């Protein structure tokens, strides 16, 4: 196997660098080589996280350097829906970069009929990996709930795939309870025009929203009205 990583065009007058063989790349380090991954310094930083609605400039950044590029069309459509008042795109911003995202589907006729209640549907919650476990997901959900309360919603609904126990625990800690399941079938067109059919069997969880500030909400069971 030939490794071509980091291959650069040679400067004029220089010979081209030879490709490393796999054996060379995996060779034991020389005795004088520094320990791989050696920690040189650790220092604390403090920064603010801003929760805000997405703007047009966020659209390319929401792709997280290519990680979510396949959702480009979805981001565009969701943003158009935000402009039309049908959805909200809430982001957690660090240094003008959206490190966390959650979308809110505001209740529409189809949802009202399906659930017999005016419900806001929270979805597409994700936090960029290095920023996980720091409370951003929790704050995004709580702020999304506040946005629903401000708009007169009494219920919030969220789905979680059946294999995502960690996220389900998080939602249950925030007061959500499973009320049904869903085949989780949907499809999207990626940035290259390919259609993807997704099947993600999911639990549907709901929460009765309080009118107090979201942070004061208690973790108590909810019942269907
Ligand atoms: C789930 C997710 C949004 C939580 O965001 P977060 O900022 O890490 O959440 P918080 O710091 O507020 O809370 C951490 C909780 O999330 C849970 N969690 C779920 N997936 C996690 C992950 N990949 N990394 C860290 N924590 C995760 C933790 O177990 C923790 O709950 P616990 O305290 O009961 O153990 C984030 O982990 C994520 O983006 N995961 C991948 C995408 C995903 O699974 N989204 C949910 C789709 S339903």
CATH superfamily: Gcn5-related N-acetyltransferase (GNAT)
Q: Say which molecules are bound, naming each kind only once.
A: coenzyme A
Q: Report the biggest beta sheet as strand number plus sense, adding barrel if it closes.
A: 7 strands, mixed
- The low-pLDDT segments are 1-8, 214-225
Overall strand count: 11
Q: What structural class do the secondary elements suggest? A: alpha+beta
Could you give the distance between the termini?
A: 63 Å
Number of helices: 6
Averaging pLDDT over every residue, what do you get? 86
- What characteristic shape results from the CA principal axes? globular
Give the number of domains: 1
CATH-assigned fold name: Aminopeptidase
Helicity level: 10-25%
The strands making up the biggest β-sheet line up spatially as 3-4-5-6-7-11-8
Q: H/E series, N to C?
A: EEHEHHEEHEHEHEEEE
Task: Indicate the CATH architecture.
Answer: 3-Layer(aba) Sandwich
Per DSSP, what share of the residues sits in E-state strands of 2 or more residues?
Answer: 25-35%
CATH top level class name: Alpha Beta
Question: How are the secondary structure elements laid out?
Answer:
Elements: E1 2-3, E2 20-21, H1 22-25, E3 50-53, H2 58-61, H3 72-83, E4 87-94, E5 97-105, H4 109-115, E6 119-127, H5 136-150, E7 155-161, H6 165-173, E8 177-182, E9 185-189, E10 195-199, E11 202-208
Parallel strand pairs: 6-7
Antiparallel strand pairs: 1-2, 3-4, 4-5, 5-6, 7-11, 8-11, 9-10
Bound molecules: coenzyme A.
The site of coenzyme A has 17 residues, from strand 6, helix 5 and helix 6.
């Amino acid at each position: 196997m030939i490794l071509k990583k980091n291959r650069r065009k040679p400067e004029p007058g220089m010979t081209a660098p030879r490709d490393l063989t796999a054996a060379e790349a995996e060779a034991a380090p020389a005795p004088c080589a520094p320990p791989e991954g050696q920690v040189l310094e650790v220092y604390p930083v403090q920064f603010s996280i801003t929760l805000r609605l997405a703007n047009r400039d966020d659209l390319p950044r929401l792709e997280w350097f290519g990680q979510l590029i396949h959702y480009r069309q979805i981001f565009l459509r969701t943003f158009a829906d935000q402009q039309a008042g049908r959805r909200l795109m809430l982001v957690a911003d660090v240094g003008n970069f959206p490190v966390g995202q959650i979308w809110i589907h505001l209740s529409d006729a189809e949802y009202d009929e399906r659930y017999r209640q005016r419900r806001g549907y929270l979805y597409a919650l994700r936090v960029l990996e290095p920023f996980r476990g720091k409370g951003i997901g929790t704050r995004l959900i709580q702020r999304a709930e506040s946005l629903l309360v401000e708009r007169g919603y009494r219920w919030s609904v969220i789905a979680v795939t059946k294999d995502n126990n960690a996220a389900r625990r998080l939602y249950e800690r925030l007061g959500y309870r499973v009320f049904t399941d869903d085949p989780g079938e949907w499809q999207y067109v990626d940035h290259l025009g390919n259609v993807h059919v997704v099947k993600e069997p999911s639990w549907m969880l709901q929460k009765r929203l309080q009118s107090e500030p979201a942070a004061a909400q208690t973790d108590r069971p909810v019942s269907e009205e």
